[in-house]
Amino acid sequence: MTFADAPIAADSFGKLNAGGLRLGLVDTSDRDAFAAWIQADSRGFHEGRVAEKQIDEQLQDVAYRRTTGVWDDSMTDAATPVATVSSWPTPLTLPGETSVSAWAISSVTVAPTHQRRGIARALLEAELRTAHSLGIPLAILTVSEATIYSRFGFAPTTMTADLEIDTRRASWTGPAASGRVQFISLEQLQSVGRGVAERARRGVPGEIELDDYLWGRLIGLLGDAKDEAKNLRAVIYHDAAGAPQGFALYRLASHATDFAAHTATVEHLCTVTDDAYAGLWRYLLELPLVTTVSAPLRSVDEPLIWQVTDSRAVRTTHRRDHLWARILDVTAALEARRYSAPGRIALDVTDRLGFAHGRVLIAVDATGTAQVSPLDGLEHNGEAPADAASLALTVNDLGALYLGGVSARTLVRAGRITELRPGSADAVDATFHSPATPWLSSWF
Ligand SMILES: CC(=O)SCCNC(=O)CCNC(=O)[C@H](O)C(C)(C)COP(=O)(O)OP(=O)(O)OC[C@H]1O[C@@H](n2cnc3c(N)ncnc32)[C@H](O)[C@@H]1OP(=O)(O)O
């Protein structure tokens, strides 16, 4: 048994079955069955019918994922599922450049003909049970709406910012890069850039490993972006020793009346070193005939703001949640990351679905490594040790704190977390702080 064919959670199956619906796995080697699922997924996101060549791409690159559907056998088109979800385990980078296996969930759709009768709830609960039964300590997703997933124990754990830069005001003041920027075809980038992206993601908490499909889509060679790829330009940065250390993908759009006022939209900018970061940003800001550089989905803590003459020329046009996390196994999740300060923290975690419910003690040593033990065990007699910080919180807020990008003090002020001992939020913030700002630079 693998993650892809692990049994469907009986509880969710029974609930949907009672309503005349069938929850099951798609045999992704069966082209017709998988194609029907792909069409349902696309329809669920209000996208067009998927072309045969895109179905072929998904057959090749997405078939390995766990692919779940819900069928209504009373429908005229009974072969097309009325609901979809896709999931797979992926390494998630954590503070301290460690990583954990996370259950990525995507393609959650319910047909408008079948909405609001508990299908998504059954699917999500089934996903969480499956991940938990496979020993995966947390689930992650990127969301269409911020209103859906809290009820399942998820919370935003990385934030993102859309930037817009007025290049007439933003002259470069950052360091001079040692290497050089050159154009590269998307096909060349597909192989050369992959290693760069992989090295970059290992240093940033919140990044995941991109599978072949996500990588191909990111660089415009697969999926919806394919037809638009002709407008994409790719540049790669090699350091002084000739090693690739970053790349950027951007597209140019002309101004309606002023040819000297193009907009460059940075679809992706990925760097391993600060030197590559400086080299690529400077290149983008100095593009001829360009007055606006638009950069969606950036980190909320970009050094760029400190590298131009006028920091107000770099505007954040939108700041929002991006990666959501749902802890399923508190001990495994918390022991996987590294911490910024030693200390002892007692957590009283509430989880309506039960997975993470309970009281634990986190003991962080001088190396930043944690040991987590149940507080209800005999050793602690149910009491938090006198020297421990102590908080009561929901599993959602534990997910929000997990990568160190959201502060416990803020969540206490928001009335979401309760300090059981004064000063506990500050102690948690010192310990959970991540030196690298958490960020996920793509969608999945
Ligand atoms: C990870 C991802 O894939 S994100 C993508 C999510 N999918 C989309 O945006 C595609 C378009 N939307 C849809 O396909 C559907 O409307 C879904 C998946 C959002 C919801 O499916 P449904 O089967 O209608 O949801 P279901 O009936 O199970 O509702 C479960 C709960 O969520 C709530 N809910 C459902 N949709 C929404 C919404 N859009 N906003 C807020 N709450 C919602 C319901 O009220 C219900 O609440 P409760 O159980 O706490 O009382």
CATH class of the largest domain: Alpha Beta
What can be said about the biggest beta sheet?
Answer: 7 strands, mixed
List how many beta strands DSSP finds: 19
Task: Tell me which ligands are bound.
Answer: acetyl coenzyme *A
Assembly state of the chains shown: single chain
What do we call the CATH topology of the largest domain? Aminopeptidase
Describe the structure.
This protein is of the alpha+beta class. The chain has three domains: 3-136, Aminopeptidase (3-Layer(aba) Sandwich), CATH 3.40.630; 161-321, Gcn5-related N-acetyltransferase (GNAT) (Aminopeptidase, 3-Layer(aba) Sandwich), CATH 3.40.630; 329-432, Nonspecific Lipid-transfer Protein, Chain A. It is 25% helix and 30% strand. A seven-stranded mixed β-sheet has the order 1-2-3-4-5-14-6, with helices on both faces. The protein has a seven-stranded mixed β-sheet with strand order 8-9-10-11-12-7-13, sandwiched between helices. The protein has a five-stranded mixed β-sheet with strand order 17-16-15-18-19. A hairpin with a 3-residue loop joins strand 3 and strand 4 (98-110). The relative contact order is 0.13. The protein binds acetyl coenzyme *A (ACO). Acetyl coenzyme *A (ACO) binds at residues 44-45, 105-110, 115-121, 141, 143-145, 147-148, 151.
